[in-house]
Amino acid sequence: MKKGVTFCEVGEQFSDFLLIKSSTRGTASNGKPFLTLMLQDQSGEIEAKLWDAGPEDETTYKAENIVKVLGDVQSYRGRQQLKIKKIRPSTDTDSVSIADFLETAPQPKEELMDEINSCIFEMKNSNLQRVTRHLVKKHQVAFLEYPAATKNHHEFVSGLAYHVVYMLKLAKSMCSIYPSLDADLLYAGVILHDLGKTTELSGPISTQYTVEGNLIGHISLMVTEIADAAKELDIHTEEMTMLQHLVLSHHGKGEWGSPKPPMLKEAEILHYLDNIDAKMNMMDRALERTKPGDYTERIFALDNRKFYKPFYQNQS
Amino acid sequence: MKKGVTFCEVGEQFSDFLLIKSSTRGTASNGKPFLTLMLQDQSGEIEAKLWDAGPEDETTYKAENIVKVLGDVQSYRGRQQLKIKKIRPSTDTDSVSIADFLETAPQPKEELMDEINSCIFEMKNSNLQRVTRHLVKKHQVAFLEYPAATKNHHEFVSGLAYHVVYMLKLAKSMCSIYPSLDADLLYAGVILHDLGKTTELSGPISTQYTVEGNLIGHISLMVTEIADAAKELDIHTEEMTMLQHLVLSHHGKGEWGSPKPPMLKEAEILHYLDNIDAKMNMMDRALERTKPGDYTERIFALDNRKFYKPFYQNQS
Amino acid sequence: MKKGVTFCEVGEQFSDFLLIKSSTRGTASNGKPFLTLMLQDQSGEIEAKLWDAGPEDETTYKAENIVKVLGDVQSYRGRQQLKIKKIRPSTDTDSVSIADFLETAPQPKEELMDEINSCIFEMKNSNLQRVTRHLVKKHQVAFLEYPAATKNHHEFVSGLAYHVVYMLKLAKSMCSIYPSLDADLLYAGVILHDLGKTTELSGPISTQYTVEGNLIGHISLMVTEIADAAKELDIHTEEMTMLQHLVLSHHGKGEWGSPKPPMLKEAEILHYLDNIDAKMNMMDRALERTKPGDYTERIFALDNRKFYKPFYQNQS
Amino acid sequence: MKKGVTFCEVGEQFSDFLLIKSSTRGTASNGKPFLTLMLQDQSGEIEAKLWDAGPEDETTYKAENIVKVLGDVQSYRGRQQLKIKKIRPSTDTDSVSIADFLETAPQPKEELMDEINSCIFEMKNSNLQRVTRHLVKKHQVAFLEYPAATKNHHEFVSGLAYHVVYMLKLAKSMCSIYPSLDADLLYAGVILHDLGKTTELSGPISTQYTVEGNLIGHISLMVTEIADAAKELDIHTEEMTMLQHLVLSHHGKGEWGSPKPPMLKEAEILHYLDNIDAKMNMMDRALERTKPGDYTERIFALDNRKFYKPFYQNQS
Amino acid sequence: MKKGVTFCEVGEQFSDFLLIKSSTRGTASNGKPFLTLMLQDQSGEIEAKLWDAGPEDETTYKAENIVKVLGDVQSYRGRQQLKIKKIRPSTDTDSVSIADFLETAPQPKEELMDEINSCIFEMKNSNLQRVTRHLVKKHQVAFLEYPAATKNHHEFVSGLAYHVVYMLKLAKSMCSIYPSLDADLLYAGVILHDLGKTTELSGPISTQYTVEGNLIGHISLMVTEIADAAKELDIHTEEMTMLQHLVLSHHGKGEWGSPKPPMLKEAEILHYLDNIDAKMNMMDRALERTKPGDYTERIFALDNRKFYKPFYQNQS
Amino acid sequence: MKKGVTFCEVGEQFSDFLLIKSSTRGTASNGKPFLTLMLQDQSGEIEAKLWDAGPEDETTYKAENIVKVLGDVQSYRGRQQLKIKKIRPSTDTDSVSIADFLETAPQPKEELMDEINSCIFEMKNSNLQRVTRHLVKKHQVAFLEYPAATKNHHEFVSGLAYHVVYMLKLAKSMCSIYPSLDADLLYAGVILHDLGKTTELSGPISTQYTVEGNLIGHISLMVTEIADAAKELDIHTEEMTMLQHLVLSHHGKGEWGSPKPPMLKEAEILHYLDNIDAKMNMMDRALERTKPGDYTERIFALDNRKFYKPFYQNQS
């Protein structure tokens, strides 16, 4: 398998196809227009400048097009940049497609769906089970394709489902260590907690917030969806309020977007599981690009900390 | 009209009927049981101790009963207390009823309803008008009887509707000063912003939080109700999201219970109107009991400030 | 009327007179000097680069000069920039003057003065009235010309008086809704609250903080002025302390610059009125430049929020 | 098994032996001395007043003595109190000993030691293994008897080791879910993170902070102990710094007592595991005393939240 | 010299004259009135209860009267209390006067005045010298008698001048270590920084805040006084603004009451000197009552910390 | 003496030797490589661009080399930049050495050592004296050469010792004003408080954090060193814990890096002395470059404040 563009070192030459994620026009200090291209493959993204770009270039090299590039990897203000030597749009004979360039969860979505379904299948409380199954079915396509966020963690195709599957693994081990936990409530909470993202976000490519996402948010959207589903399935028991509470409180605090703090044991734990999996994902991805004896870049979503990668190596 | 119990000065004798708001048993330092009674009339409440209270007294003097009391107003740790000299339960021939002892909004609820309805009637946007009318009708009885809160401000019978009526007066003057405001959206937001309190709270007497109130909260409950109403009335326009946003963001910040901060001009203004009317109510009620040249008690919900009442007197 | 420069869209050509607000020399990556010009008309300001600028250009194109420019509006790092094609200094025959290029309150200053005076005239408390009139007279010229701030809100010629006039409108409606408010004290507080800005700031053009403004601040400067005025007018009554308190506390909290929080009802309300009018001004001006369905830029002084402009349109 | 004193309801009579945890002299309002006794059994503690207590009573009823009590459980200011009817000191023939009255971890200390040792045994990195074993041996007696804290969580005999054993269970499941974690480093961190408490605290009975505990703290004490042990064992590799860092940063933030925030993936996870096990312990113990449909008391160490216990019941 | 009441240990008998600082009436649980007396001598204050107090006792034992008391020092809720056995009002033949019972600075006020005057005399900048001398003269009587605060630090007769004298000692040593400091400005700032307290507070006995103190505060009062003095002395130089700034900013931050943070080197240092001397005073007084090997009570104004007094003893 | 490069004004020509502090390669908008050089002499540092830099230039002009430069001082984005006209590497015949270009404390290190030693000599408590002398000796070379920090204050050769010497001057004057202070403990704390920086930082040139510095920090490193030294010198008295506490708490608060707040009077004072000397150093150095009537740049480590330099001039 070829090495992704973000794994090239400064000074290396790169020659391969890349997807244009965004293309912005600017004017150079000599007065001539240029394009700032954000190019990506499955390993991540890199910036490149296309100098002396005429009006036709703006059309040729716009977002969501695929290009063949030859260039040198350079460093600019501490970040890597690709200095373009040759560039051309891809043609039909190149046999490349957008999906080849998008970062995707390391597990296929069918497997992810299976793991989630088997967990729903195990639930003993039929009220929680029916509502969970109903909502997963309703949003199934998006659930399996959406990222879990626009940035920071799991910001890749199927990121949402992948995040949920890892949280389910954590939830299972928690329930076996602490049997006083209500496993069904916790599983339902894990599966639904971020499902509102399928309304909050625009989709898996060039992901942005929708108007409903900005003004209402995935938490409140999901609380309403649960009420709706319960009404439709004619369930009027206390579990529905508990489940709504889990979704409502999973950000943990008002200043992090939850209108109520966790007031159920399972809600408190859900908040922790969400955090742990998100942070593991961020730390692993940052450390993957770091050499032993060195530090990652500062990670904004981890209180702007940098992490150290030791020289010696043990692994689980 | 008789002076309420909270307007008596230390040293004065008090003789009248009072409603028992709560009654709690304790044990005195001599080992004998006593009752701590919280007694109220329309002016507010006062604490009293009933010493040497036998088991039958616990039954006779329990919450929501009315009593005739003769006693002296004393000061205990800086707060007034009623020293009971004589006490007896009320009888049928006393012709007193609970409603006589509850603090109530200074305007009758019919008038409040009229003011709210006339405002709904004036709305030009029929989508906002229909949803608002639908929800007001659905909760009308509670809307006119509930307090706006369990403490701090408008914590009296019809407090919720009274608060809304004053906010509507403010909203009208705002819209005439700043014509760029969307009056219909603002009016709808004012009328519905706290309507979820009719589910969050238990009712107008001995008001407490319900389980739904504690775990979901009036803001999220109302957002779901608006979605429901819109579905029922088959309205699918952008205004519904805007209205949900106004309710959602009316506490202004995450740490104050709003999962989203105001992102519409009318939402920002709604937050201000809510604050101004609540604070005017708290300050007026505290200053009413304060003598010129003196300070109110510290008011917790106003950042624990105390307010000064000047000697000289101007009025609007 | 011609469209202001800030209303041009990217790609449009612009040809008109503009005022140079500031001119800064830099060195291009080819080693040649250039000028960064900030150009303004009544609609606001735009940046432009003048390449290959010799020493004589620095003299010709310095701040407070007027120029005729032909150029294209471009986008640079998400902000608009004017690419200069032709530029020349204005001449006497062009008949343009600085005042034509400064943003100014939408009401003439004579009208603003009339509204303020009529409010002073209505005051019944002669002590408050005399001090207010005295201080307004003393600073009248500056009061009518100064902006209310160097940035964020009402940062235009006559912005200070315009801000006061709108706050007076709000104050009047508040006093009619809540008659317990002391209207005279509130009016005096509104009129004087920011008058210290005439000492704090340097003037209506290229507004900056004076040394006294930086080290003492408009709040403390005005408190001293009120003491001075009271002494001169031989007024020694409690109202003077109350009025000083209103000015002192109008920022609401220590961290916002008020050494005392509001401890009078009117002081609390003054703080709200100041906030509401400042925020309405910021939101209106940002939304004016925003298309329906889109968001304003993030507004730093509004907690860095962005505001949404709905598609549908209702108006008061 | 007899029901512990803290499980008695208000109104019930209690008759059994209890350990005096503390005894404080006061003067009643009638001028006579009395003793405030804090009495405990394995279920927890309850306050009682001993009226008219002479000087000899102060000697008889002092801390760490055992007494036989007959009394009624009453409510005082919302907390339970025991009204003493009869009391006498225990005698040799009563065959009771202090250990019978101390709350103790639900697992015997031999088992706890076995679990910890088997985990040390599994470690593959011999440097980490040797230091961990060395320090556990050095403090073994205290490690198995000390509580994990003076209050809030695991504040019982063997609480420290019990807390460590549960964190090890969590650590094992984390390492199997996220194989990129360095299991040896994480296990060593879990085992040693709170071992400094054996110097910070005075012991398992009437636990208090030592002077070293107050002025240096268990975190810094342990960092020094690791340096010492490494020197003694002649280990000079990078792992020692990593292990010190895990201990140093396990409180997560400066304001929570860690001079450095986690900068290793395992340090971040250690902080989470510590939190989760402490919170599960607090929530479980509070909910155990709560009836379905009711709330726990507010728990200070959980941001003063109260937790709800639902009516319906699912369990893992 | 006799040992003050606050130096008595629990269990000791006390027999001496004391000043009644405050006297508050309450009702005992047997229904009889009693008085809570706060009694003081130069060592500090102690609470006492006078049971079965008739109306004549309220007159006899009111604030600012002196009494002869025989009683036992007891402990109540961790604080000392005096159990009265005998009490009588003082008579003329007792030859005691209020001044004997007030805590007073350890240096006579004439000496304090001399130290301050000699510092003013040393000033070389005549503008700063004249204003400082003018204001010290104007408030001289109060300056020498007032405390520096109502509680926390230097809350004794002449506390204000004593605090200033120690800050001057610190200021002198600072100026000799860092010669770049403007000594005259710093001395003037030290002398005037708290002089507004003579208006803010009611006086040296039963010290309370005045209305001006509450609503304007000593900082703003002094800024106005400096402006006034400068006008009267016809000084219009930059130093006056600098001096006002020193007073204005001496609390260091908005949330601590300064509308501007220090923006002059001398202002920054003034803030530190004020803090150091206040804290030394608090720590010394708390440690004086603490035994070696023990901790002081928690001191609220020192972030609620407690301080340790070591066993071993070194002294400067 | 020649004027340092940072004292040149914009527009001046500069011709002298400079040390290359860092050299970073970039690509210009014309596609050609260039070097960004950070050049320094004893007055501070200035940025310069070397355009069209070939591979051999990267070798010639790398960090820690000395160059002869002819250039013009220009302004770029408000900061000074040197526009290079001629540049060449220094040769042996130039007789320049690195030490000539490093900013150094204004006192030679022998003098600094003498002042510190004479203070140790004066100590009366032999335990504190021996430990202090032992640790100073152990780290003597680094102690006299290291800076006190990488930026903000005393970031120059011998900065650490210079900072300690000034803090000792402050400590002596404090002990003479407040004789209750334990001078020996305070002196020992001053001398050792930052000595851990010799492990935390990499050295006096191009100073960076070591791995131990980042993960453990100078505070914890020093606490361990004191324990070690005490063990080696066989001292087991309470003073060692006190001394560790002074080092541990000298940052004052958890969020500033101290795991314990000061709980000894001397610890509180140490924190203040550290702050005062650091701030004096920052303010003096910033004001030195500021003209009368102007402000310094905003200083991040002083809460981002700017300081004013008055026109008139008094000095101590």
From TrEMBL, chains A, B, C, D, E, F:
Top-level taxon of origin: Bacteria
Residues in HD domain copies: 163-279
UniProt GO molecular function: exonuclease activity; nucleic acid binding
An example Gene Ontology biological process: rRNA 3'-end processing
InterPro entries (UniProt xref): HD/PDEase_dom (IPR003607), HD_domain (IPR006674), NA-bd_OB-fold (IPR012340), NA-bd_OB_tRNA (IPR004365), YhaM_exoribonuc/phosphodiest (IPR050798)
Gene3D superfamilies: Hypothetical protein af1432 (1.10.3210.10), Nucleic acid-binding proteins (2.40.50.140)
CDD domains, A to Z: HDc, YhaM_OBF_like
Keywords in alphabetical order: Exonuclease, Hydrolase, Nuclease
Matches recorded under SMART domains: HDc
Name the record gives this protein: 3'-5' exoribonuclease
Originating species: Aureibacillus halotolerans
